[in-house]
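Quick one:
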Amino acid sequence: MIGIVNYGSGNIQAIANIYRNLNIPFTIASTPAEVLSAKKVLLPGVGAFDQAMGELETSGMRQALDKVVLEDRRPVLGICVGMQLLARRSEEGVAAGLGWIDGVVKRFDHSMFNQATHLPHMGWNTVEPIQPHRLFDGVDLRTGYYFLHSYYFSCNNSADVLGVTDYGAPFTSVVHRNNIFGVQFHPEKSHHAGIQLLKNFAMQDD
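Output:
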């Protein structure tokens, strides 16, 4: 059973519709008990880092998530700001993140780009896997994914980088450590490639 965490941030219904169409069991987890009963967890997120982190804390599900992910080691997938919450902190605000993956969320700086770019990074872009993983099985990475963000995840350990995207400069777009995954793009808005990735997360064993 996939638990889609409903803490007031993220495209909950769009993700739910995908799993419903795939006939994959899911629940919209709005309480600590519902989080604890999930075999896998999806952590969506949109908007500002501090606001999303505050809503997660206020929801009362933070401790349940720590137990499920860190103690029980059940798989979790953070999406967009949900991925950024996996970090220790963000330059966007002052709140501490979940700290599940060692890294800091940084703001794109025009000085890092080797060509003219616009912020936020919005629209379709491709992902290049750094290492093979079942999360990408059956995905045509050439079709790309839908992005909308001005901040990116900077990992302190290169082994935690699973995929990168080029937007005038390369940045980490997929992170992975043990049972913890994060994607900067929106799979729920990315048509076939996004649907396949969400299916892979639901079906893989770890």
